[in-house]
Amino acid sequence: MSKLDSSQEQYLLSAIKQDNEEAFSLIFQSYYVDLVLFGGNFIKNKQVCEDIVQSIFLKLWNERKNIQIETSLKSFLLRSVRNSCLDEFRHLEVVRQYEENYKDSVLDCYDTENYILYSDLHDHLHNALQQIPDLYREAFELNRFEGLKYREIAEKLNVSERTVEVRVSKTLELLRKQLKDFFILLLLIGIP
After folding, report:
1. How many CB atoms lie within 10 A of CB 90?
2. What is the pTM of this model?
3. What whole-number distance in Å separates Cα of residue 60 and Cα of residue 27?
4. Most-buried pick from 14, 54, 98, 181 (CB within 10 A)?
5. Strands (E), 88-173
6. Each residue of 146-171: pLDDT tens digit?
């Protein structure tokens, strides 16, 4: 992979800092294939390796004005590929582990007849909210469904933050009682 010597690399790096696309293209052509092959030492999927190398070159171009390379360009590119491949490998391992754990925990816990659909929970939640006094429900919905903070709700409703806190808390308490059969799902959607 020693297609460019260090003086050529320095010249080309200076040129790309001046937006010289031909210099960038020469760097790309000199190192692309070898970097993809190098990535194959870590990840055995050629398409993923190509994506990684293309991302590194894209970052090199996008950050060309500010990039500081202390070693040779070749060393910088190799280290970038290695680090990106290791990151991708770790990501794939986390996804695989999650899928394995998710499959084991969720599918074993519920069979199709006992599985509670989100729409069922939504219907029960909607019905339960209709039974809560308007003042409490409004504060709760602004907080949980519209994402407003207590301070913002207090300003909107022209009440104190403490009043908003009490109303949301009271609504949660009432919902917990009315939706006790859905407790686990309520936790998943953020209603403790």
Report:
1. 10
2. 0.49
3. 10
4. 54
5. none
6. 888 999 999 999 999 999 999 988 98
